[in-house]
Amino acid sequence: MTTRIYLQPLPVRIWHWLNALGIVTLCLTGAQIRFPEYVPLFGSYRGAIMLHNTAGICVALSFSIWFFYYKLASNTMEKIYIPTLTDLKLFPRQVIFYFFAYFFGVPNPHHATPDNKFNPLQKSAYLAIMFVLVPLVSLTGILLMNVAPLREMVVLAGGLKILVAAHFLLACSLCAFLFTHVYLATLGKTPLAYWKPMWTGWEDVEEHGQTAKH
Predict the structure, then answer these.
(1) In the chain, what is the greatest distance between 2 CA atoms, to the nearest angstrom?
(2) What is the pLDDT of residues 43-80, one digit of tens each?
(3) Which of 38, 98, 160, 167 has the most beta carbons within 10 angstroms of its beta carbon?
(4) Would you call 150 helix, strand, or coil by DSSP?
(5) For 3, which DSSP code?
(6) How far lies 126's CA from each of 30, 129, 134, 201, in Å?
(7) Are strands 2-6 and 202-206 parallel, antiparallel or unpaired?
(8) Does residue 30 contact residue 52 with C-beta atoms inside 8 Å?
(9) pLDDT tens figures, 145-199
């Protein structure tokens, strides 16, 4: 027997899909900018740069939506994203589930609720992604879009070559997370079980905690 819980409010879903579209666009246009001879996906090189910059602005704006909602509107940012001591103790159990137990049919040990959506592994990953990686890749991107007017900050960051290399490595890390995120999202009761709540907001949860958020 299953029950339904409202897990993903509308502002979170809007942010999630706007962010997803923006990051995929950034990855593809970034690949063309970095390797124009091998990845000619968006016509001209100049066109790829313009689309890349536009997608970057959209991702920065969607980040603002995310921050405003969790920090100011719902005031749940710390509770949802900051791992507690209990989370750290349960971290190994969640890692074992993803790497071994899942493949033997063992239920997910974490049971999602609106106030505790993420398991310890997710909290740790999202903490690094949302509070370190996204701000840094956005900051380096903004500097690269405004080299002339922000020249002093570019020099302070180590110069243009260092800035380009840092932006590329940060973007590669974000792209790697994207693949991992999509893979983990398929580890539900069905491959689309964890995708549905991001469209409807509702998640089906078996009683007695037999399923939970990935």
Answers:
(1) 62
(2) 899 999 999 999 999 998 888 889 999 998 888 899 89
(3) 167
(4) coil
(5) E
(6) 23, 5, 10, 19
(7) antiparallel
(8) yes
(9) 999 999 999 999 999 999 999 999 999 999 999 999 999 888 888 888 888 899 9
Q: CB–CB of 70/80 below 8 Å?
A: yes
The 3-state DSSP composition of the chain as helix, strand, coil percent (nearest 5) reads: 65, 5, 30
Q: What is the DSSP letter of 70?
A: I
Q: Which amino acid is present at 129?
A: I
Structure confidence at residue 209 (pLDDT): 47
CB atoms within 10 A of CB 118: 20
- pTM value is 0.84
- CA atoms of 36 and 50, how far apart (whole Å): 14
Say whether pLDDT at 139 is over 90: yes
Closest CA to 102 of 117, 116, 114, 119: 119
